[in-house]
Every structure is written in structure tokens, then in C-alpha cells.
Amino acid sequence: MKLRSKPRTKSSDSNRPRRRLALWRSERGQSLMELSLLAPVLLVLVIGLVEMGRYASLAIEVGNAARAGAQYGAQSLANAANAASIRCAAENESLTGGTAPACPSTNPLSLTVNPTNVCGCDNGGTITAMASCTSTCAHHVVVSVQVQASGTFSPLFTYPAQGLFGYLNIPSITVSDTATERVAQ
Questions:
Q1: Which secondary structure element, helix H or strand E, spans residue 181, and what is its range?
Q2: Distances from the Cα of 163 to the Cαs of 6, 26, 48, 171, in angstroms?
Q3: How far apart, in Å, are the Cα atoms of 85 and each of 13, 19, 132?
Q4: What is the pLDDT of residues 116-172, one digit of tens each?
């Protein structure tokens, strides 16, 4: 025996457009669509924050290294004249926070340290610059050690040559800081 299906009535045909309209109005999958649109933007923001944090960390380490070198050189005139020891003190600071006893054999920050001595003539609290530390001064000669430290920041990710409309093209950046301390005499 064959079962007959019900003949279509006018009312069931009129429900079909309503069902389609209900499907179009359905909010199923809306959250997934929003996430797929916002995920790339959020990822770019997170990558940017990581890169900025790494840059700030390097800038702090370079500044600390310059200060450590200047503080070591400021202990005495003999230390101020010893450029190798000043470099060693700066590199120790950049590696271990200044706790290493000897000069490090590696330099992972590619830190460059340039110490120089700066002399001036103290005339009642006003210090005027001198051409060299061997020049004569009517009053007291003030010796300062100046240490310039620099390191190179390289981004973690390589961006396209043009970047996003030319805004994400980040090359290696040199970070430098200078510290000056008066030498104890």
C-alpha cells in the first residue's frame, strides 16, 4: 500500500518565505563572525605591545649600563682613566645586574660602551669647560667621566617591505644613553 503525502495547501506555501526570513534574521554564528573580523586587529595590537615592551626593556638596560660604567669610573681618578674596566662594569650591569665579578666573555645585547673624561674649572661653584684635562686652571679642576652606551633593537617579526601602508616597516633601531658622573678626588 502506498502512502500518500498530504497535498500542499496554500497555508504551508505561505510559511516558506517566513522561514527564510527567520533564517536570515537568526543570530546564530554572529559571535564567530565578529571574532573572525576582530582577531587580526587584536593580534596586531598584541604584537605591537610586545615589540614596544622589548624596546623599552632594551632602553632601560642600556641606560643602566651607562650609569654603571659612569659610577665605576667616578670612584677614583685611576678608575676614570681605565676605559677597559669601565666597559667591563657596563657590560656586567647589562648582563647580570652588576653582580658578576669578572668581565663577561659574551655580549648578547651587542652593547657598545664609549667612556671619556670631561674636565672643567671650578670657579666658586660655576664650572667652565676646559679644552683638555691637562690645561691649567686658576682654581680647582673638576674631572667627570662620561659614558655613552648603545645597543641595537631588532624586531621579533619581519614585516613586509611596504608594511601596512608603509607604517609597519620597522628596521633595526640603535638605542643609546649617556651618563655623566663627577670623579671623586
A1: strand 173-182
A2: 64, 38, 13, 11
A3: 92, 83, 22
A4: 998 888 888 788 888 777 777 877 888 899 999 999 998 887 666 555 555 566 678
Query: What is the sign of the dihedral through the CA atoms of 155, 160, 162 and 164?
Result: negative
136 DSSP β-pair partners:
none
Burial per residue of 129-157, b for 16 or more beta-carbon CB atoms within 10 angstroms, e otherwise: ebeeeeeeeeeebbbbbbbbbbbebebee
pTM of the model: 0.72
Q: Which three cell numbers stand for residue 66?
A: 651607562
Q: Which three cell numbers stand for residue 166?
A: 608603509
Contact between 175 and 152 under an 8 Å Cβ cutoff? The reply is yes
3-state secondary structure of 154: coil
